Amino acid sequence: MVSERLLRLQNASENGLEQLCSLEACLQTRQQPEMYHLKVLLLLVIVSAMGGTLQHGLNMSIINTPSVYIKCFINETWLERHGTALEEHAVKAIWSVIVSVYSIGAVFGALIGGHFSVKYGRRNCLIFNNILTIVAAFFVGFSRMARSFEMILVARFLYGVNSGNGMNVHCMYIMECSPKKLRGIVTITTAIFISLGKCLGQIMGLREILGSESVWPLLMSFNALPAFIQLITLPWFPESPRYLLIDKGNRALSMNALQRLWGKRDFSQELEEMQAERAAISSEKARSVWELCRDPSVRSQLLINMMMSFLIQLSGINAHLVHWMPYCSMVIIFAYVFCYGVGPGELNHTDRTDLLGLRMDYGRSPFCNLHGHYYIETFKALSPACTMELGLI
């Protein structure tokens, strides 16, 4: 009897070991494709940012270094054309137009971004958007050779259109291509790439690289390099699954895109959720900006976003340092953070999204996706110059 029991225990232990080995092998086979598709998603985030928020960061910082050279170029060009030099205030006025026309182009690009992303798709919109950057780089790169500062003006406007369109479509594309559990952290990368673009622009603007007087047109056309990289690499990635199903109604292509991005699994539940969303919004017509402003159901959200952007600009992030600016910056920054914490920031922790009347397309509040970007951009207003002026460092 004892020998029989020992034999049974031995057989049971052998079976248990075999099951453990098979389970471990199964887990390893599952982990390998998951790691592979995480790498695919990481590559998608990097490639999509090259024509999205990275371009905005580059345009914000790359214009600072050659400012003196461009002003001299404006004066020299005017002198060659008319025989008289421009006065200092006239040169500053032209330079101010060159700098500010970028924002005008960004507004135009943001307004057309939604229409083109629905008509042509998120990925194709980003691909075509790179053509604007390359054309703008061509204009500014040959501006000194053509002796025309107007070409710089046109290039800055096209850069603005590219950034306004690219920032919106870039955010939509990576959100719709990422799983729900990674959607928040993937969206935060948009702010990271803005900072990386600013850092890259400052590095390229060093005198030892492209910041000298002889090569400033190359510095101003540096945006073409990341745009060209995205132009040749992004077509290898799939279109947004949500766009393929909701906007195009192609279930097979949407399933194929999900499997290429997330792995070879059954995504029937995700497709059913998108199908239900498509049925819910099929009766709604697309709204214009004016209709959005007049809609009382989203007025509170619109006002909150407008006040956030307005307070960031008042914090001094884009202003020259004057004697009262550090104190104004400190007060507004802390007021902004306080108001955000007691307002939409609290909704991220309590999940009381019904208070704002938001329709949740992605399983979390838009503020949860964007509040990291707002905090990063706001606290960057506390520049060393401001903190030194206040005696904080």
Q: What does it look like?
A:
By secondary structure, the chain is mainly α. It folds into 2 domains: 27-237, Growth Hormone, Chain: A (Up-down Bundle), CATH 1.20.1250.20; 294-393, no CATH class. 76% of the residues lie in helices and 0% in strands. It is built from 19 helices and no strands. Helix 3 (67-82) crosses helix 4 and helix 5 (122-141) packs antiparallel against helix 7. The longest helix is centred in the first third of the chain and has 48 residues, at 2-49. The chain is globular. The protein starts with a helix and ends with a helix. Mean pLDDT is 75; it is low at 25-32 and 344-393.
Share of residues in strands:
under 5%
* CATH overall fold name of the largest domain: Growth Hormone, Chain: A
* Major β-sheet profile: none
What's the N-to-C terminus distance? 82 Å
Low-confidence stretches: 25-32, 344-393
Count, helices: 19
- Name the CATH superfamily classification of the largest domain: MFS general substrate transporter like domains
CATH class of the largest domain: Mainly Alpha
At a glance:
With 393 residues, this protein is an all-alpha fold. It contains 19 helices and no strands.
